[in-house]
Amino acid sequence: MVKNTTGGTGTKSLARKHQSAGDGCHLRLPECELEIVACVTKMLGNGMCEVYTNNNIRLIGHIRNSFRGKNKRHNLISPPCIVMIGLHEWEKAPKNCNIMVVYSTNQVEQLRNIPTIKMDHLISLQMTGTFQSGKKVQTDFDFAEEEIPEIAPQQLPKNSIEFDLDMEEQVDIDDI
What we know:
- The protein has 176 residues and is mostly beta strands.
- It has a domain of 95 residues: CATH 2.40.50.140.
- It has a five-stranded mixed β-barrel with strand order 1-2-3-5-4.
- 13% of the residues are buried.
């Protein structure tokens, strides 16, 4: 029989030699007007996701190969995470973008402290987990009392049992 020199399924890909220690310390900031901080709201599949900017613009973000494979372990993209996107300069009306950096929760807190980066809408979008588009979303509920029809004894199934409850005694939940 052949000797197992790889150590099992995918063990070499999870080895420490593939991990980089310096990624957690460095905070990548937007360097030009084509780099924007945004929030992922929906995963579309096939390497794409729905992204909203701070100006409430909907874009389709393309997940490139640097976020797949071994690198996916530390750059997991899932709603609602904060990412930095790069707009395509050849599109006049932006509708597509590339995802460049996925920020962790500590890095998001550092970004909030920088006054030049506006991300108030992104933080509220991330906290609520829902997005309100141009459509009006109803969040209030109206509860109405509805009369429940009484079941006549003739309509009861044959193997049903009737119970009479005495409402004189109160049941204490702690006694149960």
